[in-house]
Design goal:
Keywords: Coiled coil, Hydrolase, Metal-binding, Metalloprotease, Protease, Signal, Zinc. The chain has 450 residues and is α+β, with helices and mostly antiparallel strands. It has 2 domains: 178 residues; 212 residues, Glucose Permease (Domain IIA), CATH 2.70.70. Helices cover 57% and strands 12% of the residues. The protein is built from 12 helices and 11 strands. Strand 5 and strand 6 form a beta hairpin. Helix 1 runs antiparallel to helix 5.
């Protein structure tokens, strides 16, 4: 017990140290003062430089790999969009793993802090226990058989030990258990930190791939830069005149060529679906419900938006902090839901549709409006960046923008008092906000509600 307590106590009293080559081997011969430090510093710098070189080489190799992948998709929109959706899903999976690892790490760190505080408060007891054990080890009480003449001393020692030993044993075992737990926690924290570093690295690579894929997608649209810039300028001018979202949508689709073409395409898709048989409609719904079976080459919504109830995924990973119909901070009720996301989260289109507006608007931050057909619109607000152009067709799950880091406050974030990015999601039918809850899949709602 003495050796165990003393060994474990050394973990508590000793300052944390990093084991390195310099600690494992002693110098072969004495060196002048300061010479050893200079050599160690030079070796550390050389090691850091090599680490940077290795990182740069890995980044360059990853970049070439991504470029080769995109080159293979150059004239194949279906593969490009499929790769985009796949990259978004992998990033979402990585974010979920990172959140879980961070949560475990926070719990372990909290437990370590609690044990350290407990040990700190019992530092005096620990010192007394160790001192008593050391004294007993150096000068044990006499054994009656070994020294039969010293019977009185042996009896007194036995009485004293009988009174003190149970309490001493209890304190020693409690301290030893705490110290063992501390050692175990430190090892677990080190493992979780290593896992977190690997997950962050994997996410970084996926984000680099996604950025390159987005750039390739937008380049493949084929619109002339001058025409696109002119359309964006006109869209911003129209947005400045709009008094509300309904007015904004109306102005865009009546006065902007690209938005008007998108609205026409949405109407044509509605008319084409109206000619389908019920059997064809049911088959299309089955394929849409099974994400891997969705056709990434399509240029029109797979099914009517009204038929997509219970099949859509939220546009970003996060936690719902405001629901449709809840009391708002302005005296009314919420017309959409507010989703607290991770910093720089990727935002995807919840449904198939045509981009009716893309850009900054009032206190909404970067705003996206998707024409889902049959009078339905999906509004996404609070983004830091949008990656799609007005008139562009997007698929459900296709990346359309990115959230910020939470420093730029939108009206929704200010009203809630959120410190993290907040994505506002609103569904509209014929100009009126409607409850989006029936459209989300059950698994999606269980996930965000924890």
């Amino acid at each position: 017990m003495l050796r165990l307590a003393m060994a474990l106590a050394s973990v508590w009293f000793a300052a944390p140290a990093r084991a390195g080559p310099a600690e494992q081997t002693a110098p072969a011969s004495p060196q002048p003062p300061g010479q050893g430090e200079k050599a160690a510093d030079l070796e550390a710098r050389r090691h850091d430089y090599q680490g940077v070189q290795d990182t740069l080489a890995q980044s360059e190799a990853q970049k070439k790999k991504i470029e080769a992948e995109i080159a293979s998709y150059q004239n194949d929109r279906a593969k490009l969009v499929s790769a985009l959706i796949d990259a978004k899903k992998k990033i979402d999976d990585d974010e979920a793993k990172i959140a879980e690892t961070q949560s475990r790490l926070d719990t372990l760190t909290g437990s370590e802090t609690a044990i350290r505080r407990s040990l700190e408060s019992r530092r005096g007891v620990l010192i007394e226990v160790l001192a008593a054990l050391q004294r007993m080890d150096r000068k044990p009480p006499p054994a009656l058989l070994a020294e039969p003449r010293d019977v009185l001393r042996a009896i007194r020692a036995s009485m004293l030990l009988g009174a003190v030993l149970p309490e001493l044993r209890s304190e020693t075992e409690a301290l030893a258990n705490d110290l063992r737990d501390l050692v175990s926690l430190r090892a677990s924290i080190a493992r979780e930190r290593a896992d977190l570093a690997r997950e962050l690295l994997a996410q970084r690579d996926q984000r680099a791939r996604l950025e390159a894929l987005i750039a390739a997608r937008q380049q493949s649209i084929g619109a002339a830069r001058e025409a696109l810039a002119s359309e964006q300028a006109k869209a911003q001018a129209l947005a400045g005149k709009a008094s509300n979202l309904k007015d904004l949508i109306s102005r865009m689709e009546s006065e902007l060529d690209s938005a008007r073409r998108a609205a026409d395409e949405a109407r044509k898709a509605d008319e084409a679906r109206a000619r389908l048989t019920q059997e064809q409609i049911e088959e299309a719904k089955k394929r849409f419900a099974n994400a891997p079976q969705r056709d990434p080459a399509r240029l029109a919504p797979a099914i009517a938006f009204a038929d997509a109830k219970g099949m859509l995924s939220l546009p970003a990973s996060g936690r719902i902090i405001k629901y449709f119909g809840a009391p708002s901070d302005f005296g009314g009720v919420e017309k959409g839901l507010s989703l607290a996301t991770r910093p720089n989260a990727i935002v995807s289109a919840p449904s198939d549709g045509y981009i009716a507006f893309s850009g900054p608007w009032r206190t909404y931050g970067q705003l996206l409006i998707i024409n889902a057909g049959d009078g339905y619109y999906v509004v996404l607000a609070g983004l830091a960046r949008t990656d799609v152009a007005v008139g562009q067709f997007v698929l459900a799950g296709e990346p359309v923008g990115t959230m910020g880091d939470g420093t730029a406050k939108t009206a929704a974030a200010v009203a809630i008092g959120a410190t993290q990015p907040v994505l506002y999601v609103e569904f509209r039918k014929d100009g009126t906000a409607i409850d989006p809850n029936p459209w989300w899949s059950k698994s999606e709602m269980q996930r965000v509600r924890g």
